[in-house]
Amino acid sequence: MAYKPELLATARSLEELERLIAAGADAFVIGEARYGMRLSGEFSQDMIVQAVEIAKPKGVRIYASLNNLMDNETADCLDDYVASLAEAGVDAIVFGDPAVLMAARQHAPGIALHWNAEMTSTNFVTAEYWGRRGASRFVLARELNMEQVIETAASTALETQVQVHGMTNIYHSKRSLVDSYMEHQSETDRLPRKDKDRGLYVMEAERQDERYPIYEDANGTHIMSSDDICMVENLHELMEAGVTSLKIEGIMKPIEYNEIVVRAYRNAIDAYTADPDDYSFQEEWLEAIQQVQDPNRELSYGFFYKEQVY
Amino acid sequence: MTTTDKVAPRYQGKRHRLDKPELLAPAGNLEKLKFAIHYGADAVYIGGQKYGLRSNADNFSFEEMKEGVEFANRYGAKVFVATNIYAHNEDVEGLEDYLRSLQEAGISAIIAADPAIIETAQRVAPKLEVHLSTQQSTLNWQAVQFWKEEGLPRVVLARETSFKDIAEIKKHVDIEIEAFIHGAMCSSFSGRCVLSNHFTDRDSNRGGCSQSCRWKYDLFVDDMPLYPEDEDKFTMGSKDLCMIEYLPELIEVGVDSFKIEGRMKSIHYVATVVNVYRQAIDAYFADPEHFELKREWVEEINKAANRPLNTGFFLDVPGAEDHIYEPEEKAAPYDFAGVVLEYDAKSGFATVQQRNHFKLGQEIEFVGPQGTFFKQTITEITDAEGASLEAARHPLQHIRIRTLKPVKPMDMMRKKIGKK
Q1: Is the pTM higher than 0.90?
Q2: Which end of chain B is less packed: N or C, by CB atoms within 10 Å?
Q3: Do B194 and A306 touch (CB under 8 A)?
């Protein structure tokens, strides 16, 4: 079968889901914050059912995000939750915690499982480990470089998923750190909202150009990257490597922005799959994104071409 | 009610659950290993040359590991090796040989987070126990059950677990639970922080952490800094964990191994902290009904403290009081000054290896295992040849010092600072 990568997106609402389907997304990761990690929007079980009803007739897949770090109380609810997701007809469950694996084996047998522990999903041997325990897809850490991504895609029988656009989480604490700070300043009333739409960010003295978004939710405090990955120029490298799924992370972005980004990547993927040998990157795809890009957030290559030490 | 009557057979019959919880200490090098064990640790964890999360620590060669294991064996103690990185593809090569060498060196267990390392160890070095690292952020009993079924005899829980969570886990799964009870903490979920990668191009999950969580930041709201320059800045930096005041609760909830953090810390820190928890655990088991926290334990802990202390997540999620917004002050006015090498009862002089400047007239104290302790003033010091000195100025110099009471090798000497 000819290679055709999946273009995976996120959605904050059913409206965004429909608009991004129209823009060319093949699949979506959605869910609710109790079980999922850093979701663009909140999808109740009813909304997940509706999302499947919208997506399925169009051949679009819905993946439910369950890769939160779960306490006992949440884990105790997993059996019912995974069963309801299977019944809703989601195409896969995204997990990081083995508790989800245990629940899915019992209560959603046969459902596809995508392993995504975010920054700790770093090598193909571990991917294979989760593969032997039921995972069908390995979501690669965003801190890997291109060489590692290519090698991983070549070395594992699992599907591979790589984020090609958008922001990434760089720090997750269970603590409510903004709240604690405001309490320390004796001004808890001054900042009643600390959610991801509030536009809070932190800046470090020696890095005045970098704005790191920060927000709080039921899962604690999240700090996000100051740049947005944008791999549209070099997408062919990932497609040549045979990466199964290319993800656009739409968290904390307007729908209009995500529409344009999805369209750009749709164009690139379609051009590549139509004729891989004759494929060439079109400047206009990137320009469309640049026009809507927040000038305070650099479009970057993430860690794809970066040397890291330790 | 107490764990003294817990004699349930170990999972897979590998070993029997310890009556007392294990006191597990960090050891950044061979000397620290010896002090940790001498002061009462039941086990120590160390780092080797690869696969550990402290790439800046001294770390052990296989030869040093063997020497460490021999030393530990004399005390009936165990040596664990932290292999707790999240490996990248290129780290996988050489892993098998490395794990086999650990087994040959007599290491009892590895502490691992990455299944690539866990599974390889189980395959090529079956005599090594595999303990699941806190880097896996294990918070619920179902996940613990999973790792038990995978053949792991022990799980180090996420630092985010509370007493209530631990009780729930112990209720459902018969497995050894290890918990951090003392030391510095990631304020993030361990492993779920790549600040270093973004700020300094250093890979935190492979040992490159540059402690960016302890830096100071401006918090911006509506594109303006919320506070002016002279106000306390935003930070994620946490106070250090200290659970000495909740020792009975830790024992009774069934924590099997009490872990002290700090492979980068000094021998003085490790020995002091171990010494206190050793005494407290022994005192509890000698008479649980009448156990009382001793004031001197808390004082000793404070003498080693680098930062203000708190109780982490055991009681509640940390709040405003649990982070360090203001400039840090040293908790106690004492500095490590020397290590006793030998004592001559006839002359009443001890030979001390200098670890910090000290001089005549200074107030000092000697501390040894089991809480032996006395204070004195420095009345007479000489060099190794017996020539009188005013002060001990040279690092590692052997200094003879007249002591008020007999001391023993590996006792520690502290000096009071701040006053003349």
Answers
A1: yes
A2: C
A3: no
